[in-house]
Specification:
Blueprint lengths: L10 E5 L8 E5 L7 H20 L2 H16 L8 H24 L8 H9 L10 H10 L3 H12 L4 H8 L3 H23 L1
Antiparallel strand pairs: 1-2
Helix pairs in contact: 1-2, 1-3, 1-4, 2-3, 3-4, 5-8, 6-7, 6-8, 7-8
């Protein structure tokens, strides 16, 4: 007697063991993910674009996207549907972004709207609109005192280390750190004023 056929709404995925055990079969819902790599592959671009839109620079967007996946890896279940996984990743992204702004600016700022951003995560956009981040950054920098503007230019536009920035400004490293901290706080306030 042959085994009963699997329902057409499900598929069989081979799971290989590294210990030399024979491969195991498991049934996967078509609305779910087969493995963690599939979760990553299908969501990395969307999350990266979301983070880039919020922070405006590639290094921070890459770091924050990685942090979202590291944070979600433990509690996220593969048995969840794709929609549940995307929703969880969005919620995790919101938390990671809020934590980033709190660390960077000393302000609990996050601008992820679950309603609109969930739709953006569901379907990636085909064309990317040009970002207004460079113009906004220019306006914010122009509103800062010279020393604050210079430390931010050195650190974030010229990608200098804190030590290199301190040498360029002819100040101590600890003074450069204080200048950067104060400049970031002032820039955050200026950015909020520009939005209003």
């Amino acid at each position: 007697m042959s085994p009963a056929p699997l329902p057409s709404a499900r598929r069989v995925v081979h799971s290989h063991s590294s210990a030399g055990d024979p491969a195991r079969l498991r049934v996967v819902d078509p609305d779910g993910y087969a493995d963690w790599e599939a979760v990553y592959r299908e969501n990395i671009d969307r999350l990266y674009r979301l983070m880039y839109a919020r922070v405006g620079n590639r290094p921070d967007a890459e770091d924050l996207t990685s942090e979202v996946f590291r944070t979600a890896l433990g509690p996220l279940r593969l048995a969840s549907s794709k929609g549940e996984v995307r929703s969880y990743l969005l919620t995790t992204a919101q938390t990671v972004l809020a934590s980033h702004w709190r660390r960077t600016l000393g302000l609990p700022v996050t601008s992820i709207d679950p309603e609109s951003d969930l739709a953006a995560l569901a379907e990636p956009s085909k064309t990317e609109d040009p970002s207004d981040a460079p113009q906004r950054a220019g306006k914010i920098l122009a509103s800062l005192p010279d020393r604050y503007r210079r430390i931010l230019e050195l650190r974030f536009l010229e990608a200098c280390t804190i030590k290199e920035a301190a040498q360029a400004m002819n100040v101590s490293v600890s003074n450069a750190k204080v200048l950067q901290h104060r400049a970031l706080r002032m820039a955050a306030k200026a950015g909020l004023e520009l939005e209003q």
